[in-house]
Amino acid sequence: MQSWEGRWPLAGRQSHLNSFRKELSASRIQGWLVCGPAGVGKTRLTEEFLALAAADKRPTAKAVASRAAAQVPLGAIAHILPAGVDMTNPVQGFHAVAQALSGLAQPTVILVDDLHLLDNSSAALLGQLLDSGTIVLIGTARTGGQTSDVVNALLQRGDHIRRIDLEHMVRDKVDGLLQRVLGGPLSRRALHALFSASGGNPLFLRELVLGAIAQGKLTLNDGVWDTSEEPLPVTPHLRDLIAGRIASSPPGARALLQSLAICRALSLTDATTLADRTDLESLERSGIVEISVQGARVIVTLAHPLYGEVIAAETSALQRYDLALRQAERIESYGLKRRDDALHVASWRLAAIGTAAPDLLRQAAAIAMNLNDNKQAIELLTAIKAEQHTTESRVLLGRALMHTGQLERAEVVLAEADTHARSDEERIITATTRCTNLFWADPDPAKAVAVCAAARSALSDQTAAQQLRLMEGAMLTVGGSPVPGLQILDELPDSPPQEALDVWLATINAKTLGLTFVGSVERARTLSERAKAAHEAVGEGRLLPHPAMQVAPLALSLMEMGEIDQARQLCLSAADSLQAAHSPVARQFLAFESARAEWLAGRPVSARRWYAEGVSTARTYHLDRVIRLHMSGLMACAALIGDIDTAASLVTDYEAVAPSGSLNGEESIGMAWLHAARGELSRARELLRTAADRARHTGHLVSEALVLTDIARLGDPKAVQERLAELSVQGDGAFTPARARFVTALAKKDPQRLMACSEELEHMGARLLAAESAAAAANAWRRKGDARKVTAATADATRLAEQCEGARTPILSTIAGAVEPLTQREQEIALLAAAGKTSKAISEHLTLSVRTVDNHLQRIYLKLGVRSRRDIALALKHEGPIELA
User: Fold this and answer.
1) What three-state secondary structure class fits 317?
2) Which residues pair with 163 in a beta bridge?
3) Which sign, positive or negative, has the C-alpha torsion 454, 458, 462, 463?
4) What is the dihedral of CA 812, 814, 816, 821, to 10 degrees?
5) For residue 107, what is the DSSP state?
6) What's the pTM value of the predicted model, to 2 decimals?
7) CB atoms within 10 A of CB 847
8) pLDDT digits (tens, 9 = 90+) for 95-127
9) Residue 810's closest CA among 709, 697, 673, 688?
């Protein structure tokens, strides 16, 4: 614990300390005032100021102001006044204090914590001492704190007081701070959990991180820090800090605070029945509650999520019962007029007495699911007795279980719903939900298709049967057979129907993914945008997954359109909207698209965060369908930044998971880049050739193009340029043709085309490919002896590579200090030698004689300007020798 505490910095701390030290020594400032809300580090910073003054041999003193001390004149600072001074006569007393302190060699540095709570006498005395130059005042003050005129005069002394305002941190600053403290990246889930729980309060954030690490709730997994799904633990210190602040609230407001902790939010009308307006205004001024306008209602909530947890923990079970039941009865007396009234009343009754009317529970659960709170929906539905369930409520429970990753339990519930289904409508809704659940539970879509087929045969309505036939097509399309699946989905209308919108949204999602798989990117984008708009426009009562599910196919189409940065931003926004919803299936699905967009952008560290989050979510909820894709990406990212040990550690788990069929061929990228990082380029290319053949066989043309491009990047562009040229005209996306032009220019070693490709790829957001294209152009210009163009191309390659988060590829390694370009064979031998392999091992791996290998090594030494294998590793920016594969 102590080691982590030692790592925790205060934002801007060093610059503030440097300024204080400089101005103190120059005696230019009479006072320093550090302002901000509670918990931002005001006291900590000012105590460091005081320590600097003490280290400079200055006389120092400290006082803490409080409401209690303010009841007595000079109560806060009496202990720091010189002994024997009579303060009964303020004028003479002030003069005596000033005279006593002026006798010291240097002004006394006095720290007053919570200076805004000072009594008038203390404030007046400190003001006179400041004016006489006998003290340097350091103070903290809470933003918005209510003060007297005398204290205000002390706080507002113009240029004589230097003011520092500390604020709660925004999420990006929290992310940067945590990465520095933890020494590595966080998953988006961990960032959201810590930021939401802390509210950007640095003190709360620090305690949450220390507590989570101590209890194993924040751990380093696959090179990325991640939190568990459980709530973050509140440390005793943090609990005491919050309890101390809440204890300062008016006694008459206790019932209101307890009700807010139990009920989360109250209308202003209800809040004023529990506390008078004066107390409510006091709570708002002190930052304990917030009052906001939501539509036509004025809502009162606790200002910080942790306040409710601490207050609830100190509230007895009987009090919680009374508060919840009383609030439920109050809302019922109004007639459940608002949309979420049923949800609130059912939840409060459940918390108070453990049950509620079945119809109310069903209604509340539907609202909860509509708000994407699947966890609460499950709590409400499981409170319904077995004999009181309907087919609708069973399907609703099955959906909530599915969306939270409880797939086996969902299958039990949905199978039971299937046996109770009587109408065609009930059979359709049950079968579609059940087959979707089976699809996520098993990489083989056969079981999901079989459920649809069986239900279809029992239907009397052919229109209804067609809906299930479309679901079969959806399962095939995203389950590894996009061509036959899309043939079925060709009958799906492009516009949302009035009826069976949930089936249309599920199947259009699969159709747009499939269209992108086979290269029909323009149409996929159009349909994705239409589906996204339709899903977002759905009103209350629709039992649908989170709308973010519609973002994934749109993002995939944008990537293949060559709009990678737009896809990244779209994914990031959607993923953030998912963090507060307990929807791990949607979260994992979108995490993959986010990771893929970052990978194509050439940002392996950012992509690694998303892939790690996908793996963690899959392991927690047994979502094995796309875990192999996540693990492959995770391996590739680790390998690309030189973390070979982490990449290698994933191989066993990766190989134990069955392929999903989605994006066929891309599941081999991780192993290929691991081989490449080890210097085994020919082995990596062979693996990718097999993957490309699989993708071609199943019709995953965009995946085939991606894999073929990697073969070219790893040393054999001539072998794939013809097929990539064919693919570039089979689809209508812009990214595959751009990659085809890059590979052709690479094969022809045409520097002008390579520079044109670099510019085009950079415009698309594919900066790593752009950097490699410029690097290859530099090598081609070097062969032609054009030093000026070599310098220009190298500068472009370096600039682009610097945006790629430390990515290391064979092409980029050829410009790392090389006087002459390495040939393909020299490049392969150099990487193997840098990885620690002997000449004999290299000769066996490449089927060459040892003498030939040594001759190549001598030329490599000459071209790189080095003398040893160790120097090769440094020249190529390799991690250093590793064990032989």
Assistant:
1) helix
2) 33
3) negative
4) -140
5) P
6) 0.76
7) 7
8) 777 777 776 778 888 898 888 888 888 888 888
9) 673
